Amino acid sequence: MGEIFSPGKLMLTSEYFAMDGALVLAVPTKLGQEFSFEEKDDERSLIFWEAYHQNKLWLKAVIDYKNWQILETNILSNAEFILKTLKNVQLLSTIKFKDNFTYHLKTNLQFPADYGLGSSSTLMTNLAEWSEIDPFYLNKISLGGSGYDIAVAKEKSAVLYQSVPEIKYEKVNFDPSFKNELIFIHLNQKQDSREGINFYKSKTKSQKLVDEFSDLTRNILVCNELEKFSQLMLIHEQKISNFLEISTVKAKYFTNCPVFVKSLGAWGGDFVMSSKFDGFEDYFWGKGFRTIFNWNEIIN
């Protein structure tokens, strides 16, 4: 049996605008998704799929990959997505699902599914590594999206990422001197990123605005003072709020918070980033948000 691991991600800059080529800064999380596999030459042409969430069985399916039929499952809609994805793997790979082997494939998501840290992107990256195919293309035909999360999972590192006019990225060392002052708060809900992307796509945007987010990303990467970093985060948040005509997360939940609060990824759910202040735990707990991580607890 073999094993592969891909980390989750947090998108720190250019949410939405990544789709139009804005430069993204994203970092890997300590938790991610494990993928284990076993192959048997038994002439059965079957896939036994098991997906676990934090070591608890969530989805199981038996798939006949000669005819691409689901023979057994406990959640049909999710099994259909797995079938579609594995069919894409067969299309792209020269080594998997070509013979009559039986495949026992198992995934384990190490974080709660509503954290929004990349359950799908880590799956795509693991499958691509296992089948020796391009993870960005597998993600494109199976899911869509800008692909920044694939870069993080693949490189297991912070990255600067750009998707337009073509995918390009580089590993970077993002280790701010004030990182121990930063915190990440979960908003108790998972945001549908596809819904947010569709809304963003419906609005007219300018290249000038896309470039402004790239400039913000570059400035945030090299920032070495918390006060300046906080100002850049406030500017970033307000620019997206103005464009989407949606209130910032701070205006919605944390109007009297004495420091910045920035959305990470699709607005309306998942994690936000902020910084410590006197009584910050009591403040966020009092608002009903009790899942708070320090930098070293969540960032790899």
TrEMBL record:
Keywords, alphabetical: Kinase, Transferase
InterPro entries linked to this entry: GHMP_GYDIA-like, Ribosomal_Su5_D2-typ_SF, Ribsml_uS5_D2-typ_fold_subgr
Superkingdom, natural source: Bacteria
Keyword Protease: no
Transferase is among the record's keywords: yes
Transmembrane segments: none
Molecular function terms from GO: kinase activity
The protein's name in its UniProt record: GYDIA family GHMP kinase
